[in-house]
């Protein structure tokens, strides 16, 4: 029997969990993982905070998948640019899209595009060495930075801004970002949530970490923890994770500042209405909210807070791939359980939206693959041709980075990190990455 040929587009957790489930199937399967960057692992390499090396170590499980017979990696190949969906459909029995969420959600307020107002997505990609974001210049000279949003990404951004040179030194944060954070004039990082402490999206381990930073005090106003009746009831019925997060906040509210050089201040029930400034961010106008049926509703109380830089951390957003269906409203590929139609599937953030931790993508991708295999067994997959991706790319002059090329990048990065006690020093320009992949 001819092996089932499957293309998985995107090499983040969803792509690797899909590949792993496919290679574990009880029929012969060949999987080509196609990735626009020269490097695999998606947000595990380029999103997860560099001071969380244990989380980044999940890539070891992905390395095991990559070592299995039937697996191939085609980095430096962007679907929609180097190869179209229609071409993939001809080359493979089935295509799984696991392209993540490539951009940010907007606040939709005046001043959002002023210089100094950044999407968290940009800052995160910059400090993690994403080659498309290395030209950005963050002015951290003002003494107050504001982070909008109460999710884990907002906490990553706040924490990264607050790390000391000693905390940054053993990480794989890019050298440019380490220099900028070490030289930063930011003394206060104000994290602002539109709803209350009970409704925050973050998780307790991440909230708890804020209390252990060497270089920053954590400040919570006890008044912000006086809950209205509905929030009190919500907390009572909430899962233990929410209760633990609120306990951390209650602990912080009792702490006196210890005089550390920076402070992270958490504010709740507050929304930005405008980002203000002449040619660059100088202040934010906020409105105080009250909760009505769990929603944030603006009151008349307004306040303007000076600040020099804003990080909008209100969620990521999926981007469509030319030639396949896309729902603009949710930023996802419309699907049922991961099936778009026989032969076309989705997994991960582009399937369900930009939420969930790395492990969430395992169940999600496995569900998708089960439907794909069902379609294969029932003979509903559309017919394919006999061309190969490598022939098509060669015809087009596209030079893919194969898995051995990524391993050469990996060796070069680890080798550069070792003498400094760092897990790696990332190559962060396209030229350096492609040279290292070729062994130059
Ligand atoms: C800043 C941040 C920090 C996080 N930290 C943690 C954490 O500490 N712990 C945790 O458990 N979870 C964390 N998460 C969540 C976790 O990263 C996600 O759940 C997970 O990465 C989503 O997987 P995915 O495969 O859907 O998308 P991604 O990881 O984004 O992977 C998508 C891949 O597709 C590629 N791609 C996109 N378009 C194309 C195209 N047209 N052609 C080819 N390739 C393409 C991209 O380059 C990328 O490599 C974090 C998320 C963020 C944003
Ligand atoms: N260490 C980790 O495990 C880790 C680290 C980073 C990320 N992640 C995961 O990755 C996923 C994405 O994280 P995320 O932080 O980007 O998203 P998220 O968890 O969805 O949080 C988004 C935050 O933005 C707020 N928000 C949305 N629109 C807003 C608006 N117009 N004005 C003000 N606030 C607004 C939301 O508030 P509302 O609730 O009011 O909408 C919420 O607080 C999450 O599942 C997260 O847990 C995990």
List strands and helices in order, with pairings.
Elements: E1 4-9, H1 13-23, E2 29-34, H2 43-46, H3 53-56, H4 59-66, E3 71-74, H5 85-91, E4 94-97, E5 103-104, E6 117-119, H6 120-127, E7 144-148, H7 152-162, H8 165-168, H9 175-182, E8 188-192, H10 204-209, E9 216-220, H11 229-237, H12 240-254, E10 262-267, E11 270-276, E12 283-292, E13 295-306, E14 309-312, E15 316-317, E16 339-341, E17 344-346, H13 349-352, H14 360-377, H15 389-396, H16 403-417, H17 430-438
Parallel strand pairs: 1-2, 1-4, 2-3, 4-17, 6-14, 7-8, 7-14, 8-10, 9-10
Antiparallel strand pairs: 5-15, 11-12, 12-13, 16-17
The structure holds flavin-adenine dinucleotide and NADP nicotinamide-adenine-dinucleotide phosphate.
Textual characterization of the structure:
- 34% of the residues lie in helices and 20% in strands.
- By secondary structure, the chain is α/β, with parallel strands linked by helices.
- The strands form four sheets. It has a six-stranded mixed sheet with strand order 3-2-1-4-17-16, sandwiched between helices.
- The chain has helices spanning 13-23, 43-46, 53-56, 59-66, 85-91, 120-127, 152-162, 165-168, 175-182, 204-209, 229-237, 240-254, 349-352, 360-377, 389-396, 403-417, 430-438, and strands at residues 4-9, 29-34, 71-74, 94-97, 103-104, 117-119, 144-148, 188-192, 216-220, 262-267, 270-276, 283-292, 295-306, 309-312, 316-317, 339-341, 344-346.
- Strand 11 (270-276) and strand 12 form a beta hairpin.
- It has 17 helices and 17 strands.
- Helix 1 (13-23) packs across helix 14 and helix 16 crosses helix 17 (430-438).
- NADP nicotinamide-adenine-dinucleotide phosphate binds next to helix 7.
